[in-house]
Amino acid sequence: MTTPEITLNLHQIFTTVKAHLLIQMAQCKGEFGACMYFDPYTGRKCAVGCLIPQSLYDRDMEERVMLQDNRPVREALEAAGVIPEGCWSIAVPFLMRMQGIHDTYPVSLWASALDTMEQEFFPETLKDTQ
Question: Contact, 50 vs 41, CB < 8 A?
Fold first, then answer.
């Protein structure tokens, strides 16, 4: 069970990432096709990368393949107040789901995939808008 603090934060994270992806409408990939948190040449950011303030970005983040083991990303998200300290294990599956949409879905399907995720994770907020 998640705490109210992280649940609220997850919804804020979701709306931030959704807006970012639907404005950017392009994956953030390096020259060899690997997804990146931030591409300094294009300015693009991935789903998780858009949550990392530029001042906390470190190129070392790109060296770690698995998000759950990426200490520099965790520390940046905690330092920025995006993920409350001690809530990383709760946030990782959620972040990985959003990252999976960025990494594996065709851009043309992002909106519907994000809508589906929103219905699954935040049905109560959708009731308020209908």
Answer: no
Whole-model pTM? Answer: 0.88
Task: Please state, in angstroms and rounded to a whole number, the distance separating the CA atoms of residues 90 and 129.
Answer: 27
Q: What's the gap between Cα 69 and its chain centre? A: 15
For residue 113, tell me if it sits in a domain.
no
Question: What is the domain range of residue 58?
Answer: 4-104
- Per residue in 7-63, pLDDT tens? 558 899 999 999 999 999 999 998 888 899 999 999 999 999 999 999 999 999 998
DSSP 26: S
Q: Is 95 helix (H, G, I), strand (E, B) or coil?
A: helix
Question: Is there a domain that residue 109 lies in?
Answer: no
For 18, 30, 32, 34, 36, the CA distances from 117, given in Å and listed in that order, are 10, 27, 29, 24, 22
Please calculate the CA angle 88-119-99 and round it to the nearest 5 degrees. Answer: 40
Among residues 26, 54, 60, which one has the least CA distance to residue 40? Answer: 54
Contact 75, 63 (CB under 8 A): no
